[in-house]
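Before the break, one more example. Copy the sequence into your notebook; we will annotate it together after we see the structure.
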Amino acid sequence: MEKETKKEIGKWLMDIAKYLLTAVFFTSIFKQMPQYLMATACMVIVVLLFYIGVRLYNRNTKKIK
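Here is what the structure looks like once it is written out:
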């Protein structure tokens, strides 16, 4: 894969992680009933996507400079 493509995928994964985190946050506020299993699964996915996104983004920005 090209460097720029990996950088864009990294940015995209970080955006998805932010959207998921925001969705879970607002869902828990509006429902007022915590759903621990859903929240835990979402947090694991958010952390994983954010980690992969940061790794892809940083790897390609260091090589471009």
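The chain has a mean pLDDT of 77. The helical segments are 3-31, 36-64. Try to locate both features in your own notes.
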